[in-house]
Write a structure and sequence with these properties.
Largest sheet: 4 strands, antiparallel
Shape: globular
Radius of gyration: 19 Å
Number of domains: 1
Amino acid sequence: MQTKPNTRLTIATLIGILAQSTALAEAPASPLLQRGAHLVAYGGCVDCHTPFKMGPNGPEKDHTRGLSGHPEELRLATPPKLDGDWNWAGSASMTAFVGPWGMTYAANLTPDRETGIGAWSVRDFMQAMRTGKHLGVARPILPPMPWQALAGLPERDLRAIYAYLMAQPAVKNRVPDYAPAAGTTTTAGTARPPA
């Protein structure tokens, strides 16, 4: 007796595989996008800017929220007490970090114009990566964002990263504002980052 394969299982498996694939799995159309995809993968941008979710095998990246930063609805408990031996910590979502600088949240790098970097020009993006300041003039980009490493990239590579980010699906997600460390103040009038 021949049995029919479980079509539902096969379709579910296929959907699961497709859902787990990232934008990096799709071959970008142009050499510029291919270079951007390579640099984003090599730089680990997805590691902090795509939140974790609990999956069947433990924590995994939520690719439906790819590069959208810290989830706006995720309210975190008081961070752990830090001392000389443990001077920074990260959230379970891998999108929020606390240290001597205060509490930082991974920005929304999607092209959403209201909550991401969709309103940024390539010049704005390059200025931010070169100066370590939002839009090149606002508040500092804080740890653990390795903007210093990006600052050393040639212009063509920063343009490729920007093009790749702009080619991703826009995700509306307003990331919480940076919270300075207790006892510190921020410069009045600095622009809130887009995410």
